[in-house]
């Protein structure tokens, strides 16, 4: 209970800080007042159309990535499973890229999240099929690397084939992620898919708890393993797909957050799920504040900061796993 | 950073030295009769100034309706793709290129003994005048260049004649790029009788201006870049609700077109259109 409160307070505080951070020089009180009461001037425009969607998206996407990481790690029983590292975000980005640069997204707004969803579904489906619940870390990571590399290669190809001179440079956005210049349109576009995904993943708790005892024990407790697998695949695809469609792929959130919170919740996958959701929201909000503090006028990518924190941790996890296996 | 800038300045100085050297040489060389241009901006100026049979080939970009203001004229010439091999095979006695044309192509052509004249992109209206003069000298069409300049000056003087009030404006392109007073587009804005609200916020050259700063600068006129074919995320910013709101609530919005791309007399068309808009905005004229 105390952990929930702390995480909620942290997320709320970071949300407010995110709202008052930006290159436009506006006072804290002035900006919050303009957000709540329309002053008809540019400050309200900045608050409601630039900073509010940015903060909302950061919280939503962070929660999605934290939740997806915790769910995948619970199902695969492997602390290295993370949507960004194992190619799920990459294949979602490929779907979004196809929708965007073929003009489908311009003709039909929902095409963007839908295509990203299909991409994520293919990615996570392939991964679960290849690595499976009994697969070793090695199989998981190798399958993930292959999927991520293939998705990145096809993405680059599509971007380079585009007649638009800006397209080729946008690979950085799709691979590192950014929340710059997003609008409420993007928030509303991603929201329904995200909520559906959260609902699916939040219901996984009991199944994942049972799975810690092994597949046979879980079956004996009345858990349908096939249904569990389908829920993990679909839920992850929904949240990662909609997050990637609007913000590109942001790596390491689903790795770092469950890792930090696992000792605090006593290794119960069910309790780790919601805690990781809140923790993920806090982490992406913090990263998005940092990119604006470090380089206010330029669009430093979010993935740069999450990788700076996440990659060393990933190495640490690999060393730890290796020690345990020997 | 300063090291990079120093190298940049060094390169610019070298280009200038080369250009001046070439200019002096230009006066003594015989009139070129097989001219090949491999840069969009030299394409257009050469098409305007060269004798009918003097100009042989222009670049493929001159045919691109998204960049070139002279697509129809360009159809009358052989099209090249700015590749050293094909240019060499055309046996030109003069190659016109921009200083931003691939260096490898230019140095290859020079090694093969071609005479290559480099033109710097214009950064001001004065640059445009100098480029016109130099193109006239290089092509041995000084009289035509002089006539073009006279007309250029007359139209510009008419534009500058009377400005009652200078409304503020911002030029905004993909990725939030804006151009301040130290660019050709910024100078065009000033010539049309506007003040650049981006320059007032410290964005003097071509640089990225965050959307928030654009909203806070509250320009009376927002001029955005035209979208290229094929969607891109970089251009999404031009349909962001903030940009839409500035277009809606402020007095007007317009788009830059091919007349803005190169420092040729075509820029006067763009300036005249803008000045017309300014008169409507300030209630002047009519």
What does this protein look like?
- The complex is a heterodimer of chains A (326) and B (286).
- Chain A is mainly α.
- Chain A contains 15 helices and no strands.
- Chain A has a single domain, classed as ABC transporter involved in vitamin B12 uptake, BtuC, CATH 1.10.3470.10.
- Chain A has helices spanning 2-19, 28-36, 42-76, 88-101, 104-107, 111-131, 137-161, 171-176, 184-202, 205-211, 215-220, 225-247, 253-265, 269-294, 302-325.
- In chain A, helix 3 (42-76) runs antiparallel to helix 14 and helix 6 (111-131) runs antiparallel to helix 7.
- The radius of gyration of chain A is 19 Å and the shape is globular.
- The mean pLDDT of chain A is 90.
- Helices cover 47% and strands 14% of the residues of chain B.
- Chain B has helices at residues 2-26, 40-49, 71-74, 84-89, 103-111, 125-139, 142-160, 184-191, 197-200, 211-217, 241-249, 266-282, and strands at 35-37, 55-59, 78-80, 94-98, 116-119, 168-172, 177-179, 195-196, 206-208, 221-224, 252-255.
- In chain B, helix 11 links the parallel strand 10 (221-224) and strand 11 (252-255).
- Chain A binds chain B through residues 22-26, 42-43, 45-46, 49-51, 100-101, 103, 105-106, 162-167, 169-170, 173, 180-181, 183-185, 296-299, and chain B through 174-176, 208-213, 215-216, 218, 228-237, 240-242, 245.
Briefly characterize the structure.
The complex is a heterodimer of chains A (326) and B (286). Helix content of chain A is 77%, strand content 0%.
């Amino acid at each position: 209970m105390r952990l929930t409160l702390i995480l909620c307070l942290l997320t709320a505080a970071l949300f407010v800080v995110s709202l008052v951070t930006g290159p436009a020089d506006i006072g804290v009180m002035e900006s919050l007042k303009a957000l709540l009461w329309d002053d008809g001037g540019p400050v309200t425009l900045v608050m409601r159309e630039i900073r509010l969607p940015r903060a909302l998206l950061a919280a939503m996407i962070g929660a999605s990535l934290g939740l997806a990481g915790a769910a995948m790690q619970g199902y695969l029983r492997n602390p290295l499973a993370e949507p960004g590292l194992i190619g799920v975000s990459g294949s979602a980005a490929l779907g979004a890229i196809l929708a965007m640069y073929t003009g489908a997204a311009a003709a039909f707004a929902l095409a963007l999240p839908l295509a990203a969803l299909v991409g994520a579904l293919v990615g996570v489906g392939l991964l679960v099929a290849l690595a499976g619940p009994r697969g070793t870390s090695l199989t998981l990571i190798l399958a993930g690397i292959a999927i991520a590399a293939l998705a990145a290669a096809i993405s680059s190809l599509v971007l380079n084939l585009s007649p638009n001179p800006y397209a080729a440079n946008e690979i950085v956005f799709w691979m590192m992620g950014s929340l710059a210049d997003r609008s409420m349109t993007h928030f509303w576009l991603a929201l329904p898919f995200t909520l559906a995904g959260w609902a699916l993943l939040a219901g996984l708790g009991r199944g994942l708890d049972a799975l810690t005892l092994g597949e046979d024990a879980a079956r004996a407790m009345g858990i349908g393993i096939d249904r569990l697998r389908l829920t993990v695949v679909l839920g992850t695809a929904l949240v990662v797909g909609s997050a990637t469609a609007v913000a590109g792929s942001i790596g390491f959130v689903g790795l770092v957050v469950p890792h930090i919170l696992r000792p605090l919740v006593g290794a119960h996958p069910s309790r780790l799920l919601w805690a990781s959701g809140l923790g993920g929201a806090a982490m992406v909000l913090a990263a998005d504040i940092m990119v604006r503090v470090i380089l206010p006028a330029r669009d430093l990518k979010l993935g740069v900061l999450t990788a700076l924190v996440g990659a060393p941790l990933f190495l640490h996890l690999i060393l730890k796993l290796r020690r345990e296996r020997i | 950073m300063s090291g990079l800038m120093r190298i940049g300045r060094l390169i610019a100085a070298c280009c200038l030295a080369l250009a001046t050297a070439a200019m002096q040489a230009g006066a003594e060389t015989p009139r070129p009769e097989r001219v090949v241009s491999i840069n969009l901006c030299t394409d257009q100026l050469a098409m305007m100034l060269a004798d009918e049979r003097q100009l042989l080939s222009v670049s493929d970009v001159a045919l691109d309706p998204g960049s070139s203001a002279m697509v129809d004229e360009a159809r009358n010439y052989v099209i090249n793709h700015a590749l050293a091999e094909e240019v060499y095979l055309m046996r030109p006695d003069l190659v016109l290129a921009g200083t931003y044309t691939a260096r490898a192509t230019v140095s290859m052509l020079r090694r093969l003994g071609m005479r290559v004249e480099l033109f710097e992109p214009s950064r001001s209206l004065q640059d445009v005048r100098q480029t016109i003069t130099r193109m006239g000298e290089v092509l041995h069409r000084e009289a035509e260049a002089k006539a073009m300049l006279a007309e250029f000056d007359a139209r510009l003087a008419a534009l500058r004649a009377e400005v009652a009030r200078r409304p503020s404006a911002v030029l905004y392109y993909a990725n939030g790029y804006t151009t301040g007073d130290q660019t050709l587009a910024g100078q065009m804005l000033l010539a049309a009788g506007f003040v650049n609200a981006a320059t007032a916020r410290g964005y003097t050259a071509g640089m990225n201006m965050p959307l928030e700063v654009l909203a806070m600068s509250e320009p009376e006129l927002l001029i955005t870049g035209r979208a290229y074919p094929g969607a891109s995320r970089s251009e999404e910013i031009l349909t962001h609700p903030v940009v839409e709101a500035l277009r809606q609530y402020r007095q007007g919005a317009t788009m830059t077109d091919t007349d803005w791309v190169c420092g040729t007399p075509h820029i006067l068309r763009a300036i005249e259109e803008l000045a017309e808009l300014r008169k409507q905005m300030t209630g002047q004229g009519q």
